[in-house]
Design goal:
Blueprint (H helix, E strand, L loop, with lengths): L21 H29 L9 H7 L3 H29 L3 H28 L13 H4 L2
Helix pairs in contact: 1-3, 3-4
């Protein structure tokens, strides 16, 4: 067969390398995380913007109250992790599609994953170490709540 002919349908493909197919798992992750993110984000938006008093309820005390319960901490951390990994994987796909130089592509992909890892670490620390009483002065509105 020459290079200007098309293989007949159902012709076996040339043998592929063995091992894990990271592109396939990345594709599967994007679909699964996308579905989970839709549920998590719409739940987040409903609780924050629709339920209760709507957007008027969002203030420091609302956030402090949410982060006082492990359920909302884990909800937000899972949403953060899925969104950042989903976004970094999407950007990795764009870099792989459009950056032709292998060295530049490698540097950009590493930079994407390092930025995502840093933001995941920072966001997780903020959610789990959030202390509404940190830095409260005696005359502030939170002073009565934080003296206990």
């Amino acid at each position: 067969m020459t290079s200007d002919t098309i293989a007949a349908p159902r012709t076996p493909a040339p043998s592929r390398r063995r091992g894990s197919n990271l592109e396939k798992w990345g594709w599967i992750y994007m679909r699964a995380s996308g579905v989970l993110l839709v549920v998590l984000i719409f739940g987040h938006l409903f609780i924050n913007l629709v339920a209760g008093e709507g957007v008027r309820q969002i203030d420091f005390a609302f956030v402090a109250g949410k982060y006082a319960t492990p359920f909302w901490q884990w909800w937000d951390v899972i949403m953060l992790w899925l969104a950042l990994i989903h976004g970094a994987n999407g950007m990795r796909t764009i870099v792989n599609d459009y950056v032709m130089h292998a060295g530049t592509r490698r540097v950009l992909v590493w930079a994407l994953w390092l930025a995502a890892a840093f933001l995941i670490l920072l966001g997780t620390l903020v959610v789990f170490t959030f202390d509404p009483c940190l830095g409260v002065t005696p005359g502030s509105e939170l002073a009565a709540l934080c003296t206990a």
